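Minutes, project check-in
Item: structure for the 538-residue chain
Input as provided by the requester:
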Amino acid sequence: PKMAAATSDLLTGWCLFGLVLLAILVFCWVYVRKYQSRRESEVISTITAIFALAVALISSALLPVDIFLVSYMKNPNGTFKAWADANVSRQIEDTVLYGYYTLYSIILFCVFLWIPFVYFYYEEKEEDGGNTCSQVKTALKYTLGFVTVCAVLLLIGAFVPLDIPNKKNSTEWEKVKLLFEEFGSSHGLTALSFSISSLTVIGMLAAITYTAYGMSALPLNLIKGTTSATYERLENTEDIEEVEQHLVRIKSKCKDGRPLSSRDRRSVHQLEERLRTLRRRERHLESIETSWWTKFCEAIRPLKIVWGVFFIIVALLFTVSLFLSNLDKALHSAGFNSGFIILGTNLTNPLNMLLPVLQTVFPLDYILITTIVMYFIFTSMAGIRNMGIWFFWIRLYKIRRGKTRPQALLFLCMILLLIVLHTSYMIYSLAPQYVMYGSQKYLVQVRCYTLISINNRNAAFSVRNVFFGEQCIVTRTYLFLHKFWFFSAAYYFGNWAFIAVFLIGLIVSCCKGKKSVIEGEVDEDDSDLSDDELSYYH
């Protein structure tokens, strides 16, 4: 009967989750098809990109679901619901944990095996022509390096000692035996957590680079809008006339049969390339000026401004909360050796203040968390789209509508997978108590103690809430966040870098003018064949 009550209560939730999953798949298909090149599209790269992007979005949706489930087991007065006995609670916790196991394992599979294989396969296809067997062998050879890295991370995470014994007379065999016992008791959680945390550090670097800039660029671009297509077309026409006149002046030097100098020949070549680019811009601007999509965007311009203001408010709320949380750690934490973990909250932040207020009206707190998570994802997409994909100072790929190469889409999806892993820790930094326990309440209020034992630069955390026999149910997300102190220390410094890049991006975005209506549509290295895709969009 208890399980039947729980099932009836959660059936609607599962139906909604199914609808969300369907919406995610549709969105991923539309997004990938929108940006991929029509002339270079490949079935395998398209499927890989759609699947990886869907996994990233589904993984980001796990955090609000996890928080909702632990909160759903209790009544508003602090008592457990009738169906939420120990066995049912354990089954729900295990289901969520298995969900994390599955998705994180899929992420490892995508990052270390599938995406690298497809990337190197397509790279070899461009160089080798059509020898499929040779392409597969070469792709497997390069992918083997990624698999080796994954295996090393899993082994290190499986056997790294989290609790070093203090017995001085313990033998080496006893220490090895302890490692295997710890590995068996964790059911592989430590190994997976170490691998995921390693990828999260890379995701932190990607978030600092792309998400921080996207959080400032996306809202301001919506508020400022784009330049008028008619105005740009007039300017472009003037540029064409100026370049044509310059070409005529240079070519007039050889009317008497004298050859042009090498300098003049270089100038003619550059001006002809410039003229071809300007004429492509002319065709694009003419197409956009008469398109129904441009007229629709002009009609919803006030709505874009509203969304821009809303997004900048969310970005400022996020940044201020992150700053206060990091400042609290800097002033009151146990230091670098403990990963800057603090005992309680000494400096509150706007998000920590807002979530308890929203908990009184279901489901406003879950809507806010979901909004922040999805905002984090979409600003990351905007940052990658505006900046392109870089390796240090080298620009590898551009993300352009209808002209993005398959390799660039694979890079895009891999970066989003890594950023999603970092999202959970960012949210935890903003509202640690809420991420751990949700909106759970208690019958008797007593102080919550957090016990931290630090042993030789290693912090082991045991978090308990004691309420006369009642114990809080901790979210499964928390189990993956603080296994290793050095990762927490890296996240702490990464948060400061994130704030700095956001402020720099905000200043740069404010100083920049309006974007061109065909921003990123026309480049000098484009061929005239790219204009064949105009009819597809406009």
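Outcome recorded: Confidence is low (pLDDT under 50) at residues 164-169, 445-470, 527-538.
No further action items on this chain.
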